[in-house]
Amino acid sequence: MTMQRPRGTRDFLPEETEKRGRAKKAMQDVLERWGYREVATPTFEHLELFTIKSGASVIEEIYSFKDKGGRDLALRPELTAPVMRMYVSELQNSPKPQRLWYFGNCFRYERPQKGRFREFWQMGAELIGGARPDSEAEAIALAEGMLASVGVAGDIHVGYLGLIRSLLSKIDVQHRSSVMRMIDKKERAALAALLEDIGCSHLGLLGLIDLKGKQALDRAAEIVRDMGAGRAAPVDASLASAPVASPAAGRSSARQGRAVEAELRLEEFQETVDLLEAYGIDFTIDFEIVRGLEYYSGTVFEIYAEGLGAQRQICGGGTYELASLFGGKETSSTGFGLGFDRIMEIVQMEVSRRSPVFLAFTPDVKVQAAKIAGKLRKSVPLVMDVMGRGLGAQLKAAAGAGAEFVVIVGKDELDAGKLTFRDMAGGGQESLALPEIEVRLKEHFQGL
Question: What is the pTM for the complete model shown?
Answer without folding.
Answer: 0.85
